[in-house]
Design brief:
- Strands 7, 8, 9, 10, 11, 12, 13, 17 and 18 form a nine-stranded mixed β-sheet that branches. Strands 1-3-5-6-2-4 form a six-stranded mixed β-sheet, covered by helices on one side. A three-stranded antiparallel β-sheet has the order 14-15-16.
- α15 crosses α23, α16 packs across α21 and α24 packs across α25.
- The model has no long low-confidence stretch (mean pLDDT 89).
- It has 26 helices and 18 strands.
- The chain folds into four domains: 156 residues, no CATH class; 124 residues; 241 residues, no CATH class; 97 residues, no CATH class.
- It is of the alpha+beta class.
């Protein structure tokens, strides 16, 4: 054996030494990610998703908590406590991390006995265990299966009021450490699985059992259990308690069901609207109402309940007046309504409330995802629902989401276009047929664009909100059909709408409103015979109103002003509704636009999510789109009829527009251009006429040669029309591709369908008679 070999220790000695050395402790788990910590804290998270600056926190003290359980049953009688609302991807680890700065900030209360230094801070692991015990999650089964996005968690942080009315937060670190010790070693592994379970996402309103018609049926079934003709008091109380319990657990999950419930009560059981409203509110403590009204879902419900209370006015039964007065005061405090005298309040649409509601948010890693073709898709959250606002798009100056949408108007309407009213005439049916056929050139019912100068553009004809004659008109009709749905999606965020005159910034008088809105019942002479009614207008349709009466059929406005009501700052001036000037520069900031140093306007995707969810959730918004799409033929006629009849020379022959644009193909090409760039259609028609006339004059005697002229003019118009330049080729191609497209044969589920456009002059007779 060599000296070197003799110097090496024996292999057995190495093994013994290794065996004698204690194993290294396992590496601590990584801290919770921002996704896991996607938690919204009451009165701590700001409406924009930011956190309350530490300098603005109330004082935090470390003492002894009065309540040692997160059971909601103890909330009504115990001290007020902070609440957390769980966002997408959140888990118990993340919740512990979210409250750690508050829990570990508290200094000892001067009146408490000094504690050991070891009681001053809690570790992440201790916080997780303490929360599990406090919330009862250490008792099998461990999985909190009922936890969904929006779930409210009552926290072990108590809210105290120190004279003279100064709030402070109290934590109990010593108690929490004791709770953490209750987790036995053999439970540790199971608990670590529990604290990493993310909350379940809320279902989309396009999923089975959650679509609008299914929701209506579910509510009708529930209301069908109430005794007729007079519901029993215990039935009303049970329904109110059911709604209240759901809101207190998760103010986001059931909001669409709750709004539908209140709608059907007003429509089918109007005598129960007030009793059910009082039954819902009767069990709320002032603190519970404040927490609920702070959330977007709870605030939306409370606004609807306020409407129910306000609607009754002074016609409340004497026996109910004390309860109504208490309910109004409760809602006024929860919504932050502005006082109107000593014992009354303005509604949330009359003056700006001082409680801006807070929705849930996404963590930075959740804001984008890849589409199947590799494009970035903007994501956002509306009422706790994850919404794809659209793919990343831009026009050089404006950047934001755009989505074709997934709701086909043909599938929505079916074989019976009931939105046109009973027994619609030939004019409406012909126009509807063209609307259907050109729809693929724009978008679907839930289509969206938030990436150009139109700001928000929605739906099957991409109506824009930059001016007062497009999307504001659609939304005004929607507001008339479904004021509850309008408030749910748009009113709660500050939007209001008023019929307006031609002057942009001048408050219109009734006669100026009438001048600008010829197809609306006159404001100055409301009893005028209905000669003002447009042949392209349909009666507003919807389920809103007492006994299903629905809105009055007052025609269709042409100009509707965008009005905005800001939330009032607590203790500051009370905001009033303000008309907003037309034009992109005056409006993009209202819809999440922000200009960067390069003068590019970047839109937050939130309004894309709001608009898409509104279309997916409210059938009335889709109906308003369909009716306004048909009414576009009236708008087009008004614009081009001023230039026509066209003449080949001053004082020469006249050629009426209704004869020139008399084929399905030509009418579709014109209306399609009007959707895209309405202000250029008349001039482009004139260009097409003159280009065709230069090759062969038109005699207007109804000969085959004249028909040939009209077909050539239609093609020349497609070439001449100035649509959005980035998609002119595809837009023109899509129209030409419909030329004489073959009939689609019937299938087992669907009848035969004719998607083609007839190019023969005379195949479209939907213009007004001469």
């Amino acid at each position: 054996m060599t000296a070197a070999a003799a110097a090496k220790p024996a292999l057995s000695s190495v093994k013994k030494a290794v065996a004698a050395k204690p194993p290294a402790p396992p590496a601590p788990p990584p801290p919770p990610s921002k996704v896991e910590s996607n938690v919204t804290l009451w009165n701590f998270t700001q409406p924009n998703g930011g956190k309350l600056a530490e300098a603005a926190w109330p004082a935090v003290v470390n003492g002894t908590l009065a309540v040692t359980t997160g059971d909601p049953a103890a909330e009504a009688t115990g001290p007020r406590r902070l609440s957390a609302f769980l966002g997408l991807g959140a888990d118990l680890r993340g919740l512990a991390a979210a409250i750690e700065p508050i829990v570990n900030k508290g200094a000892l209360d001067p009146k408490d006995a000094p504690k050991d230094a070891t009681d001053l801070k809690l570790t992440q692991n201790e916080l997780e265990k303490a929360l599990a015990v406090y919330l009862g999650l250490n008792i099998p089964p461990l999985r909190p299966t009922e936890w969904k996005v929006g779930r409210r968690v009552i926290l072990p942080i108590e809210v105290e009021i120190v004279p003279p009315a100064v709030p402070r937060w109290k934590v109990g670190r010593a108690q929490m450490r004791e709770w953490a010790r209750l987790i036995r070693p053999e439970e540790e592994a199971g608990l670590q699985l529990t604290v990493r379970l993310p909350v379940e996402p809320l279902p989309a309103t396009t999923e089975a059992d959650h679509r609008p018609l299914e929701l209506k049926a579910q509510v009708a079934t529930r209301l069908g259990t109430l005794t007729k003709p007079v519901a029993k008091p215990e039935e009303v109380a049970a329904l109110g308690a059911e709604v209240r319990a759901g809101v207190l657990v998760n103010p986001f999950e059931g909001i669409f069901y709750q709004i539908e419930l209140m709608r059907q009560l007003r429509r089918d059981r109007p005598e129960l609207e007030l009793p059910v409203t009082l039954a819902i509110l009767s069990g709320f403590s002032e603190h519970q109402a404040a927490v609920t009204g702070w959330t977007m879902g709870g605030n939306a419900l409370f606004r609807r309940l306020w409407d129910a209370l306000r609607r009754k006015g002074d016609g409340v039964p004497v026996a109910d007046k004390p309860a109504v007065a208490g309910a109004r005061a409760l809602l006024a405090g929860a919504l932050g309504l502005a006082a109107n005298g000593t014992a009354a309040w303005y509604s949330p649409t009359e003056r700006g409330p001082s409680v801006p509601p807070v929705d849930l948010f996404l963590a930075p890693a959740q804001l984008l995802r890849k589409s199947p073709n590799g494009k970035d898709v903007y994501l956002t959250v509306v009422y706790g629902r994850l919404m794809a606002a659209g793919v990343r798009d831009n026009t050089g100056k404006y950047y934001g989401p755009a989505a074709l949408g997934g709701m086909d108007l043909v599938d929505f309407v079916g074989d019976d276009p009931a939105f046109l009213g009973p027994a619609p005439g030939s004019t409406l049916l012909q126009c509807w047929d063209l609307v259907k056929k050109i729809a693929p050139n724009e978008g679907k019912l839930d289509g969206l664009r938030l990436a150009d100068g139109g700001i928000v553009s929605i739906g099957i004809q991409q109506w824009t909100i930059a001016a007062d004659d497009e999307l504001t008109v659609v939304l005004y009709q929607f507001m008339r059909m479904a004021p509850d749905h309008f408030d749910l999606f748009f009113g709660i965020r500050g939007m209001q709408l008023r019929v307006w005159g031609l002057a942009d910034t001048t408050e219109p008088t009734p006669d100026k409103i009438d001048e600008a809105n010829p197809y609306l019942r006159p404001r100055s002479r409301p009893d005028t015979p209905e000669t003002w009614r447009s042949a392209y207008a349909s009666r507003p349709a919807g389920d809103w109103g007492d006994a299903g009466t629905g809105p009055a059929d007052d025609g269709v406005p042409s100009r509707v002003k965008l009005v905005w009501l800001k939330y009032s700052a607590p203790g500051g001036p009370v905001e009033t509704p303000q008309p907003i000037r037309s034009g992109t520069a005056h409006r993009w900031a209202l819809f999440g636009g922000a200009e960067n140093a390069a003068k590019q306007v970047i839109f937050d995707p939130l309004w894309g999510g709001i608009s898409r969810l509104a279309s997916q959730t409210s059938r009335e918004l889709c109906t308003a789109q369909l009716q306004t799409a048909v009414f576009r033929f009236q708008r087009l006629w008004n614009q081009v009829n001023g230039m026509y009849p066209t003449t080949d020379a001053p004082g020469g022959k006249q050629y009426p527009f209704r004869r020139l644009v008399s084929s399905q193909f030509f009418a579709a090409a014109v209306i399609d251009a009007h959707i895209n760039v309405p202000g250029l259609v008349a001039a482009d028609l004139d260009t097409a006429f003159r280009n065709t006339y230069a090759r062969k004059p038109y005699t207007l005697v109804g000969t085959e040669a004249d028909d040939h002229f009209l077909m050539r003019m239609a093609i020349n118009f497609v070439l001449a029309r100035r649509v959005y330049k980035r998609n002119k080729d595809s837009r023109d191609h899509n129209i030409v591709a419909l030329h004489d497209k073959p009939v689609i044969p019937a299938t087992r589920d669907k009848p035969a369908r004719d998607p083609g456009l007839n190019a023969t002059p005379g195949s479209f007779t939907g213009w007004p008679a001469p």
